[in-house]
Amino acid sequence: MNSTASAPSSNAPSYSALADENALLREQVQILQRQLDWFKKQLFGPKSEKQVFDLPGQNSLFQPDEAPLPEQPAGEEKRTIKAYQRGTGKKQRDDDCLNDSGLRFTADVPMEVIEHLPPELTGPEADQYEVIGSKTTYRLAQRASSYVVLKCERPVFRRKGAEKPVTTLAPFNVLDNSLADVSLLAGLLVDKFQFHLPLYRQHQRIQQAGITVSRSTLTNLVKRAIDLLRPIVDAQTDNVLRSRVLAMDETPIKAGHQGRAGPQRAR
How far is the C-alpha of 230 from the C-alpha of 236, rounded, in Å? Predict the structure, then answer.
């Protein structure tokens, strides 16, 4: 019988080394498991919004038998409180407000005066009443359409005794051979770039006003109007480049995903 075959190999790890390695691996697994649970919580959020006020790991300030009990009022009589309704105070308005509604406007706003007469002043006994004053109410109204068609009539005339007629020249227009007035061009640009109203919505609004204009016409009008503004942009650019100091907005802006992607919990 070979004694070397039954004897343990000298290179085999001992039991204590295996136990230490097993304990180390278990500790690493626990650490990784805690990290995984934390990442899952950050990714998917908490399972419930309920807050736990009694933490199991926190010791109590008093022992269960030493906790003070709330004092009960002795012999307190019950009183009935009369129900009441809370009123609302008058809202403070600025000095330039016309009335309590808070409407404010400048002198450039068109105003339409509507006179309302009661039946007493329009009936058969109207002469029995006299008007001693008036009350004014202001309301903000909106018209169905803000577009108007300008009809320019130009007379065709000739001098007496002459045969050649003379036609009055057409009024000046910003865009040659165009149906758009300068007010329409300004309105298209302001609504699109200042109030962020797309052209297709402006086209729908024009159609609702009873005016038929193709969608491509609005696009061409905006393009031609922008070309008219290029000299102003070039002049401003040259003025900026000639300046000794250039004012720049260096406010940092975060772009892209700086960390992990996915929903994050609000703080």
Answer: 10
Burial class (CB in 10 A: 0-12, 13-18, 19+), 147: middle
pLDDT along the chain (267 residues), means of 10: 52 81 93 90 66 62 62 64 64 59 81 88 88 86 83 89 88 91 95 95 93 95 96 94 83 68 55
Whole-number Å distance between alpha carbons of 38 and 33: 9
Q: What is the pTM of this model?
A: 0.51
- Domain ranges (residues) in the chain: 174-241
The residues with which 156 forms a beta bridge, in sequence order, are 167
CA distances from 212 to 116, 168, 208 (A): 37, 28, 9
Report the candidate in 146, 151, 154 with the shortest Cα–Cα distance to residue 183: 146
Element (H, E) at 234: helix 230-241
Q: Check if the beta carbon of residue 180 is closer than 8 Å to that of residue 214.
A: no
